[in-house]
Amino acid sequence: MQLKWFSVFNKKNGPYKKLFCFPYAGGNASTFASWHNSLPGHVSVLGLQFPGRAGRIAEVPIDDMEELTTIVADNMCALIDDDYIMLGHSLGARVAFEVALKLVRKGFPGPKDFIASASPAPSVKRKDAPIYDLPETEFLEALRNMGGTPEIVLQNEELKTIFIPALRADFKLVDSYQQSLSKLNSRAHVFYGTGDHTVPLKDAKAWDLHFTRNCTLNAVDGNHFFIDSNKEKVLSLVADIIG
């Protein structure tokens, strides 16, 4: 089932839990398309689809965190009807966190469980220089060094024309994110990559500051994109959290 902002990969009838998944910069909802096959049968998986990619490729990407998270929260309101779970990877974790705060301010319950994957905590000040506004050659080289963006996109002129605006918008979200000290009353779980040199362990542990309960910390073998390279481990951890 395709909604404008969320792809529902396994629509269910009767009581079930919803897992809202937020992709990394440059990613899209398809990362989570097969997840329901490895999760308990009472779980429905919904993947956030940013404008400017996949089925929304013709739409203008959003590069302002406040605007983006306000719209996403508004669209989630109609989808929340019971306990729900939020998971975000890298940029997606910070987007999910800001969306959850907005939902609470609207009077909705926060997520029962919040999973922050491969992301520094919102309170951690970004140390790297911005890349979103670099000249194209330098921007592409920065993406290549990070990994995660297919080489065919970085080399093909037509694909670059299509995807670079969305990538720049995503990295503007990353580069301009304002530190937050807010807290959620959710069970919190942090996933970090054992070979992820972009998110120091202390920055991942700092998520503990943003919840009224202690965070669980879970190591996953792999680099920053372990959500793709070690999907089996990630899904095993998610399944255990959902129960």
UniProtKB/TrEMBL annotation:
Stored InterPro entries: AB_hydrolase_fold (IPR029058), TEII (IPR012223), Thioesterase (IPR001031)
Every Thioesterase domain range: 18-240
Pfam families linked to this entry: Thioesterase (PF00975)
Segment forming the signal sequence: none
UniProt family annotation: Belongs to the thioesterase family.
Name of this chain's protein: Thioesterase II family protein
